[in-house]
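User: Predict the complex.
Assistant: Input components as received:
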Amino acid sequence: MYSYIIRRVLQCIPVLIGVTLLAFSMMNIIPGSAITMMADPRASNIPEELQQRLLEHYGYLDPLPIRYLKFLGNAALGDLGFSLRFNQPVTRIVISRLPPSLLLAFSASLVATVAGVFFGIIAAIHRGKIPDTISMIAALIGASAPVFWLGLLLMLVFSVRFNLLPASGWGDGNIRYLILPAATLGFAFSAVIARVTRSSMLEVLGMDYIRTARAKGVGEKTVIYHHALKNTMIPVITVVGGQMGRLLSGAVLTETVFAWPGLGRLLINSIQMRDLPTVQGCLVFIAAAFVFVNLIIDIFYIFLDPRIQYS
Amino acid sequence: MKRFIPVVMICLVLVVLVGFSLIPAVASGTPQYGGTIIIDQPYGDVENLDPIVRGRMGAKRVTMNIFDGLVAFDPKTAAIVPAIASNWEITQDGTLYTFYLRDDAYFHNGRPIIAEDFVYSFERLADPESASPVSHKLDGVVGKDDFVAGRADHISGLQAIDDHTLQIQLEAIDATFINYLAWQALSVVPRETVEELGRDFGHTPVVGSGPFRFVDYRPDDVVILEAFDDYYKGRPYLDRIIFRLIPEAATKEAEFLAGNLDAFIVPAAIYRRFKDHPQYSQQMVKVAEFFTRHIGFHTEKEPFNDVRVRQAFNYAIDTEAIIEVILGGKGVPAVGFLPSSSYAFNPDMVGYSYNPERAKELMIEAGYGDGIDVPIMSSEHPEWGLPVVEAVMPYLSAVGIHLKPEVMDTGVLFDRLYAGDFISYIYSTGGDPHPADYLWRFHSDLSRTTNRYSDPELDRILAQARRTHDEDELIDLIAQAERIILRDAPVYFFHYNEAVMMYHDYVHGLQSAPIDLALQDMSLVWLDPQPER
């Protein structure tokens, strides 16, 4: 299994090179200059001579392939370049956004998984009855409600109306600030998890070994939570993993509504400001996070289903 | 008679008592010290607090309260007022400035400020190693080019005569120069701190000399400042300022209503709902900002190479209706390019009125009686982007101008604008408050990189306006310039942004700052005593 993990980690390298190459080319194809955006574009433009000097200063006059190779060389040493927006090393900027991003991603995943699995099981056990209908309608609403709408709604109720929780901000990690964004983001993702859990559970409940267990006289609770649940979880874990990768890459809408200083907003603003080094830095992290989460999921499978072997 | 004495005594006592009871009521109008204000940060993250690193408004709202320069903009009129320089002299030929510095101005690290600090700060701005996008603010100072090119170790036109006298020699008279000295890029910074911190100056505690000192900066979240006790104009009223970055307008509104935001700049969508509110409509600061929202024309390309089409465009639109419907009334119709807050604004100016018949005639005269398709570059901005373009389309179609919107982000828009790759665009541009500087975008020097408009007479008048220190002459020249610009209509004159800031009733001292309402001198702001938040 260790050789498998090492192989997977090594597979990251071409993925990261591909991602950065793609980002690098695209950012250079789209019009717009980081230098123009450095000045206040609402006043007059920077004089041409000064623009040239700045481009040279930031190494923008080198040919593209040279610039890319320089980037790769530095990235290999952990230096993701220098941000024009912040006048700071990109590595430091990206790292400063990780605590809020990770906290939001993990807590939203937790909310989504707990709520999704719970309602999925309820729906499956009571298939065709009222709890099933209610759970699935709730899931439908969750899947279709835009987070900016749901977020504002929660904010109006819990902050403006009842003044129970802070409306927005990150509050330096204070848990009270986390509740609304995590609930908003988690609710949207729990819908998918609930539906997958329900169908997976129904499939498992129809299997021979469950009938055997019931025939032996095992109690219904033990059947559901001991025999069926573990096998139900394999497709659920796949979905949760995929969602988590997406959440780690920044939940821009949620971050915007709740003024959450995460990676998603950093990435979007940096694209608008044409700050290529910061965009690259964010993408390297996001790609790495995706690969890492998928690796963890693959390892999880082994524990859930001993039949799965990596060798 | 004896009976009267007690009555008189009682009356006197009553008068005194009533008098005392009135004192607190009177006193509530006098500024109070203390308290923390939470205010919004409307233009995105400050990104870096070093005043020379960024040219954008985002940081200026914060840095203007941390740093100070020789002079400043008056918070209400944008006229030049003393700051660290208590007074100054300009020679008859207008090229030599002598600034006399106060002797009670200190950096936040406690060191007194001397003239040599300004020489260092200005040379740091010009130094190519600093790579400042605003270093051109020093253009015109004698010896700047030699210094930039490495031919000289110092800028010869900057001289510290003694600790409190600074001389700046310009190559030629330029009356707009002193305005640049009021911008944050030309603030004074302490050499010892800058050299110790290097590039981190701007991200770790920055040291300035303004009314507030730096406490904390969390990217995309907050900037926190606290009162500087030794500020030369006296300690500011507020103990602390928390600038909060909240990207979403609806969230700002929620935070304001929940009492977690004390004042914020209101976008049109929110203004629409509060402008008739019995309470909050009374708690707003409004100003016609130095931002002229307009549709620019490429004056060398068809159809806008014909002045009649440009005039027809201006006649075709019912501007007041657009402002009312799309902006909820948050805008002052533009009668020229120079905003109505400028001291050089001509109150007798009459802009284009809504006259579709005249517009149709002009289109026929210009040979476009059958109508023409006109591409327009636009962002998605709610107040000077796509919604406005969509709203003016039917008006223009009625006279034969069929707009074809091309939606793009501002990065693309600027690229194409400067490259001349457009027919028309919609945008909101501001500028320095000196009227000659504000209109300079129509001088061939600058307009050749934007809408390619050029008029030799206008060039001459604007150049003359830049050279005069006589205010009456300046106002007269600007009026002439405005008449030419209005006649030639290189743009559709849309409106001057009416910026609105809404605040709670316990907030006092916010100013109607015309350069940008966000540029609030927070040393003037004070709060009524508040219960703990």
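Chain B touches chain A through 58 residues (CB under 8 Å).
Let me know if you want any component modeled separately.
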